[in-house]
């Protein structure tokens, strides 16, 4: 028994699926005096071609999209969907005679000599996504460095990490698209929700979700970043200055520290530093006239935690002063 489509001889003498072309081969009726022979290459070529073309026109295809089965559609309709980028090389399709769903790239729908299948996930360079996995920490570190340089609270520069995440995701998405994958839906996640993008990327490339998991872990670490980043870089969080400025002293409850300083000093200089003991200190510096002499004054406050602070030191021209002098100075500042 031979296949009517490709002429391949079938070992099983019953209705079977041709392993060569997928055509259904029916057992011919045994008519007396007739014999079914394999077509010769030189005979009936046009008839075989017409049969193959007719079979293609009558093919009914199904395709999977967004987790749903669609179809049936003709071969031509499915090719038009592919041409209009409604389905892609990685889209699952099925027709009668196929044992299971397969990617379009693994069927005879597409001429592989014209358009190759997507690269395997193992062949795609993951250096960029590896950097992306640690972006929450890298971005926060960058925020602290910039904040320390320009003297603003690092929290006000939150958008730096967000922009860095988005840029890296978009660049990575374009690389994957050039590798032959459909990334249209992934682009939305690349802009708005990075973890989903990383998980979907891993699924698309058939890789482990390690980069997505690392990103989530580093994001959690970022929440506790103020303490350890200051310790690593030696750069204090400028928001410590705001804490002291907006706070009040127990002995002077009706004025903030900023009001007392600004009323007494002209254009004071505020700064946050990390001491040798790894604690955060806020310094207020200004040159004033004290007892008829030009004096460089330094008032230093020590942060106890993220919400409270205490007076730590007072210096005149680099010379430490006692609490009596500090109290006298504070009384003068409070009275202004």
TrEMBL record:
Top-rank lineage group of the source organism: Bacteria
Which regions span the lipid bilayer?
128-150, 156-174, 210-229
Q: Which UniProt keywords apply?
A: Membrane, Transmembrane, Transmembrane helix
Instruction: Report the residue ranges that make up the GYF domain in this protein.
Output: 61-106
Q: Which Pfam families match?
A: GYF_2 (PF14237)
**Annotated InterPro entries:** GYF_2 (IPR025640)
Q: What is this protein called?
A: GYF domain-containing protein
> Where does this protein come from, organism-wise?
Fontibacillus panacisegetis
């Amino acid at each position: 028994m031979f296949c009517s489509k490709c002429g391949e001889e079938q070992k099983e003498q019953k209705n079977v699926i041709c392993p060569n072309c997928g055509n259904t081969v029916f057992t011919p009726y045994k008519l007396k005096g007739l014999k079914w022979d394999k077509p010769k290459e030189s005979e009936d070529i046009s008839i075989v071609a017409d049969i193959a073309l007719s079979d293609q026109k009558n093919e009914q295809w199904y395709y999977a999209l967004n987790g749903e089965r669609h179809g049936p559609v003709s071969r031509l309709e499915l090719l038009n969907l592919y041409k209009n980028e409604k389905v892609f090389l990685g889209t699952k399709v099925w027709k009668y005679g196929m044992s299971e769903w397969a990617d379009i790239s693994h069927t005879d729908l597409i001429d592989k000599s014209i358009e190759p299948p997507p690269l395997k996930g193992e062949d795609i360079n993951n250096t960029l996504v590896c950097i992306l996995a640690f972006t929450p920490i890298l971005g926060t570190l960058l925020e602290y460095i910039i904040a320390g340089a320009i003297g603003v609270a690092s929290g006000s520069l939150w958008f730096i990490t967000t922009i860095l995440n988005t840029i890296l995701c978009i660049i990575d998405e374009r690389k994957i698209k050039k590798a032959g994958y459909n990334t249209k839906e992934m682009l939305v996640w690349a802009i708005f929700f990075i973890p989903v993008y990383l998980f979907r990327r891993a699924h698309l490339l058939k890789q482990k979700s390690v980069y997505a998991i690392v990103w989530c872990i580093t994001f959690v670490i970022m929440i506790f970043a103020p303490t350890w980043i200051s310790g690593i870089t030696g750069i204090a969080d400028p928001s410590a200055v705001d804490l002291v400025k907006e706070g009040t002293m127990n002995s002077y409850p009706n004025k903030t520290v900023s009001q007392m300083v600004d009323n007494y000093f002209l254009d004071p200089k505020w700064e946050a530093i990390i001491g040798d003991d790894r604690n955060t200190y806020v310094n207020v510096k200004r040159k004033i006239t004290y007892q008829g002499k030009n004096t460089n004054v330094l008032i230093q406050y020590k942060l106890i935690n993220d919400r409270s602070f205490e007076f730590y030191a007072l210096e005149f021209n680099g010379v430490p002063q006692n609490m009596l002098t500090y109290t006298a100075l504070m009384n003068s500042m409070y009275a202004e």
